User: Which sequence fits this backbone?
């Protein structure tokens, strides 16, 4: 039961991917798929190099690092992958509603990252109407997660 739940959490919704990609007038290539799926299966955010190495290990595909960056750019542009600027790492968006704003809480100790849909809607609501924000905005909040807070001093 637990195992099944884990699989569901890790699986990426292909139908949704297809919808987003097609509405942007693009197509879902094999490389685009393998990169977002590998990233989604990883618990922690990954750097482009880690992603490349992981793909090589699992699929034996040898992707050029510039290809990995190009595909990551593609997905960040669509808002389905976020870049954690401070750490130069990437994560799959966990917001299913396709908001303009994405708020991520990044633990600087264990690198665990959570995305808050609720915070994102609040930012949107509180934003000045005189300011027009760009299409996709990622707001990064750095701090310490609950687990790491509990482990302080041990
Ligand atoms: Zn997001
Ligand atoms: Zn932590």
Assistant:
């Amino acid at each position: 039961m637990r195992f099944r739940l884990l699989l569901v959490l890790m699986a990426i919704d292909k139908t949704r991917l297809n919808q987003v990609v097609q509405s942007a007038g693009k197509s879902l290539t094999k490389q685009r798929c393998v990169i977002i799926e590998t990233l989604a299966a990883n618990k922690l955010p990954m750097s482009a190099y880690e992603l490349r190495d992981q793909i090589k290990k699992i699929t034996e595909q040898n992707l050029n690092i510039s290809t990995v960056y190009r595909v990551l750019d593609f997905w960040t542009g669509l808002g389905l992958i976020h870049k954690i600027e401070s750490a130069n790492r990437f994560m799959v968006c966990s917001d299913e509603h396709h908001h303009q704003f994405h708020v991520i809480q990044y633990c600087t100790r264990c690198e665990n990252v959570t995305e808050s849909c609720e915070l994102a809607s609040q930012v949107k609501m509180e934003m000045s109407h005189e300011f027009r924000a760009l299409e996709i905005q990622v707001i990064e909040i750095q701090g310490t997660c609950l687990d790491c807070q509990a482990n302080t001093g041990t």
User: Anything to note?
Assistant: The longest helix spans residues 65-78. The mean pLDDT is 87. The two ends are 33 Å apart (CA to CA). The domain at 2-147 is CATH 1.10.10.10 (Arc Repressor Mutant, subunit A).
